[in-house]
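User: Sequence in, structure out. Go.
Assistant: Echoing your sequence, followed by the structure tokens.
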Amino acid sequence: MKSIPRKIKSIFMETVKETKRVGEEDPRRIIHAMKVGFALTLVSLFYYFRPLYNGFGQAGMWAILTVVVVFEFTVGGTLSKSLNRGSTTSTFTRFFPNVKRKYDYGVLIFILTFSLVAVSGFRVDQILHLAHRRLSTILIGGASCIVISIFVCPVWAGQDLHNLIAANIEKLGAFLEGFGCEFLIFHGDESGKMNSSCKHGDQKSFLEGYKSVLNSKATEESLANFAWWEPPHGRFRFNHPWKQYLKIGALARDCACLIQSLNGYINSKSQSLVESEVKMKIKESCMKMSMESGKALKELASAVKTTAFHPLQAAGAHLQNSKSAAHDLKNALENSSLLSAKADLQEIMPLLVVASVLIDINDGVDKIYESVNELSLKACFKNNPKSSKTCELHQQVIIHRGVVKPVNDSEEHVVVVVVDGGASVEESPEKENRHPPPPPSQ
């Protein structure tokens, strides 16, 4: 009995510490809890305010239940559930992938509502009155959630997805840069510790950062789905290319899978420290590929994070340096005089495996670069000369949905193609030659 107060105190202190940790990890969670409380207080007026109670009666319960069910952490999640709860669809359409991904909650509510009404025993006139009151309270509860979610410290799923993709790319870059330094030190070159580019030193926390990238697929898809529901906000315009973020995330996960094998190489303790000419050449090329690929990824992460075009140019330069190192390595291995004995081949085999993985990673970084470059065109990154005119025309198409504006002959000729509500812009050959060709001579 004497130990019970101590256990209660211990449980209470652990709860306080866990609550503090969760709040410090993301302070927006505390604000979200206050927003939910405010919404619940607002819709509770259906019970505590006599005129509202007389009008809706017990149906006011559905407004409170709506707030509890549909108020999500992000604006997109709240909009998705609110609109799905207010408008439902046929149950058969639940088997369609697009419907299940975006409207599954609405279909579920339809099934639940239909079942409750079917077994309620109400007559036709009573059912219509019930449906009117319930729909009214649900719409009021959903509208309260939407207004509070958007205008009171909003949490945008699109912004979270944007930051997540940039952070994942940066984690991969940090690993590759750190791997270059660890690779140098691992093979006995202690001068790597004094290298200005090796800032990590003996801290190897960066070696674990890539693991979160491997498990980010579900989070990315969920955020992209919620972002689709959100209105334009900040730097994210209407019809923002959210699917392109998923493409970049998939390429980043492919790169993280290759990086996982490099992490196993660092943890290996069975490598020989005896240096030879061919090992020195392979080591130098591997270190350069790893460092330059890491720098390229960090520049790409900066380009995504700041939506600026200049880091893309720097990433392209680092990527070319990495490709140059890979080319030098292939030329070195083609020189058969370096592989003088079978024993040398056995010693350098682990290094050849690392080199092969780094070449594959280099190809993966190149694909990420192309995808980010494509995103810069679709999302209208700042200071991108190729996307400025495309973005202006894209905004015109959005204002005039599906209407192609006539082109003045005195202006540059463009072709606007409207596909599924979006637009792609191609410059016509007339831009290069604005003067018509002379008529053929008779």
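User: And one key feature?
Assistant: The longest helix spans residues 342-378.
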